[in-house]
Amino acid sequence: MIVVDRPGFAGSEPAECVPQIEVQAQALSPLLAPVRGQNILLVGQSYGASVATLMAATATRPVQVLALISSYLGEPGPTARLLVATGSKVLNLIPRDLRNAVVEISGQGAQMPMVRDALMSVRAPIHLIHGDQDDLAPIDAARRLADAMAAKVPIRLQCVEGANHFLNDGPVETLLGALEACIPRPPARPTWRWPTWLAPLKAKPLATLGPVTARA
């Protein structure tokens, strides 16, 4: 499992915000370099859902599953609206990560058509994992997205009861359980059946079928 800080956050450079979703996706895409025998479950959380979507759409090697957790896709809830409205007035006074988050959200709307087009081009199964108490990115927005895309791409919405926007900060069992539910199960091994024309042989004891001669 590889977990990264997106460009402009925590331990990742640069210090300033990188508002272009496409640039962030390009910076993180080397993580998807092909490795023999490895399947990729690509996860994007909150604003990172847009970044992960572009990564999956442009990957040189297809990802097997795209999971979008608490996806923030341009439709803010009440807490997000308050964050942007307040943070925009005091950008120079708030911590770097919070400042960059406000700048990102403020400029995301104009980039959403590109993100939605990219989502439509992803051929891997898409899983939307969302808490029903999310007041930053309402689950209703995820439902509308799933309903609008269901006829065109393989997409599934998983509602997590009682969870808020920060599923990644909640009980680890809940998050891992949601992610494991996204992993496709291997196909069942085919069961060999006797052809109908061999049924008489199946019914006879082996000893009655006559001698067997082996030749070198």
Mind explaining what this structure looks like?
There is one protein chain. This protein has one domain (21-209): 3-Layer(aba) Sandwich (Rossmann fold). The chain has 216 residues and is α/β, with parallel strands linked by helices. The chain has helices spanning 21-28, 48-58, 78-87, 96-106, 112-121, 139-149, 172-180, 199-203, and strands at residues 41-45, 65-69, 126-131, 155-160. The chain has a 4-stranded parallel β-sheet, with helices on both faces.
Straight-line distance between termini: 54 Å
Indicate the structural class. alpha/beta
Domains, number: 1
User: What is CATH's topology name?
Assistant: Rossmann fold
CATH class type: Alpha Beta
Task: Return residue spans where pLDDT drops below 50 for at least 5 consecutive residues.
Answer: 206-216
What is the number of beta strands?
4
CATH architecture: 3-Layer(aba) Sandwich
Relative helix content: 25-40%
How much of the polypeptide forms β-strand, as a percent range?
5-15%
Instruction: Give the CATH H-level superfamily.
Output: Alpha/Beta hydrolase fold, catalytic domain
Largest sheet: 4 strands, parallel
From the alpha carbons, calculate the radius of gyration and give it in angstroms: 25 Å
